[in-house]
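User: quick one - fold this with NDP bound?
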Amino acid sequence: MTAIGVTGATGTMGTAVLETATDREEIDVNVAVNRGADGERVAGQGVHDAADLPTLLADRPTDVVVDFTGPESAIEYAAACAEAGVGFVTGTTGFDADGRDALETSAERVPLLWATNFSQGIHALGEALGEITETLSDYDIEMTETHHNRKQDAPSGTAKTLLDGIDDASGGEHDRTYGREGDQPRADGEIGVHVRRAGGIRGEHEVLFAGNDEVLTFTHRAESRAVFASGALDAAVWLAERDPGFYEFGEVLA
Ligand SMILES: NC(=O)C1=CN([C@@H]2O[C@H](COP(=O)(O)OP(=O)(O)OC[C@H]3O[C@@H](n4cnc5c(N)ncnc54)[C@H](OP(=O)(O)O)[C@@H]3O)[C@@H](O)[C@H]2O)C=CC1
Ligand SMILES: O=C(O)C1=N[C@H](C(=O)O)C[C@H](O)C1
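Assistant: Sure. Structure tokens for the protein plus NDP:
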């Protein structure tokens, strides 16, 4: 049995994690928190004020906390877990370089896993893009991502991860051009990055390759948030057995 905690419990993904956890017999939810929470219930769990997280972790045996919040809170919650000796899975996006360093500092004390996308399909797409980038090395590449109208960060964490993978596969960084306007022809080797925000779209990523009079497009579309929630719970169960360190979702799927 893996005992988990959930931060951002009343948020969209926190709610999806708690709902998905009710169907997982190998998972017990021992702690659920949200900033300013005042006794709300989500998927049958009482949600406590996030200010009480250190006390709750001390009082209730917890293996791993699952976090989908914002960069500032994720760093704070990771530090609280490091202090309490509790593992930390985060799907939060939008960290700057200092934020990623802060997560790595917490990972020196507890197992910590960060993934910008917990779907198996995006992981497979990332692997495939590496191979295609190597094979079609002189093709133009453009990235388009589309999300719901409440999303804070742009481009999405997933888009950045896929672009980093393309850079790795091509052995050098591409300049990233964020949208185009006016007299702005495509420069050799750049990747155009296009962001759309509308309605309740769960998350779509399209990578386009064009050259040699042909066009290839690779599209991933999440049809529900349960995809991300269940991947994060898989990661939590896996992480509960690990030593301190910084882990990736690909290691869970291997
Ligand atoms: N890796 C993946 O597979 C996925 C990652 N995500 C990422 O997860 C994160 C959350 O997304 P989503 O659930 O849609 O967002 P929501 O806005 O619906 O929920 C965010 C939650 O985090 C809390 N929160 C936000 N900022 C702070 C803060 N500074 N301090 C304390 N609590 C805070 C919110 O509290 P309050 O209610 O008080 O605002 C809320 O509970 C985003 O970074 C998103 O990109 C999303 C889906 C999949
Ligand atoms: O905010 C979201 O909703 C999502 N965020 C993640 C990201 O930024 O890549 C993952 C997914 O696309 C949904």
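One thing worth noting: Helices lie at 12-21, 53-59, 71-84, 97-106, 120-135, 157-170, 226-239, 249-253.
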